[in-house]
Amino acid sequence: MRALVFVIIVLVCAPFAFGQAITGFSGGNEYDSYYGDPAGDVIGWRFTVADDILITDLGVWNEDKTGGIESPHEVGIWDASKALITSVTVDNTGTVVGDWIYASITPVVIATGETYTIGAIYFASDDDWYISGASSVTSDPDVTWLNSVYPLGGNLGFVFPENDSSPSSGGRFGPNFILTETSLDRTTWGSIKNSF
Question: How far is CA 116 from CA 24, 27, 60, 168, 181, in A?
Fold first, then answer.
């Protein structure tokens, strides 16, 4: 009986539906930084999720699609309280998926009902680009893009990007993440746990 319950737990907890948060965009202009100061600018976007998800990789847009990015970029996700919950440096040793290059992280759960921010640092001297003012965006069905973000001021380095752009201004797409949807919900887990 316990073996059967173990198998059920493994099946119920197993993640599925692997994919990228942002799957594509069109339009917009390429920029290498927001303010152009030596410490760099964190740009990105805020989002919510329809179901709890597990984020496994963070990435940056690979604008030339073939040669990789020119410089390493730190990419992070902050929660609604502006606490950095995960980050990683992405470079050319990462995995290319679509138009992005990714680095693995210790998986982190992103919960429904909260707003999160993903950002990547860009420097005017690094010869890598992000898109600003995209005219359309496609995303995973579980991810809702809210608006793009940029730093409160110049020369701040890798910090939470405080300023919001209006949703009508299009996105700032450079950072991205890979997710899997988790099928375990608290009701199911409670039912299984109480059966012991």
Answer: 20, 25, 17, 19, 16
Query: Per-domain residue ranges for the chain?
Result: 2-188
As a whole number of angstroms, the distance between CA 150 and CA 153 comes to: 9
Location of structure tokens 């003012």 = 133
Q: What is the pLDDT of residue 57?
A: 97
Closest CA to 101 of 79, 125, 127, 75: 75
Mean pLDDT in order along the chain per 10 residues (196 residues): 40 58 90 84 95 96 79 96 98 91 96 96 88 89 93 87 83 92 50 39
Residue with tokens 């907890």: 13
Residue with tokens 């679509």: 98
Closest alpha carbon to 176 in 117, 96, 118: 118
Asked whether the beta carbons of 177 and 59 are under 8 A apart, the reply is yes
- Beta-strand ranges (E) seen in the chain are 15-20, 22-26, 29-31, 41-49, 53-61, 73-78, 84-90, 95-97, 100-110, 116-122, 130-132, 136-139, 143-150, 163-164, 172-173, 175-182
Q: Which CATH number fits domain 2-188: 2.60.120.1060, 2.60.120.820, 3.30.465.10, 3.30.720.10?
A: 2.60.120.820
The secondary element (H helix, E strand) that includes residue 189 is: helix 186-194
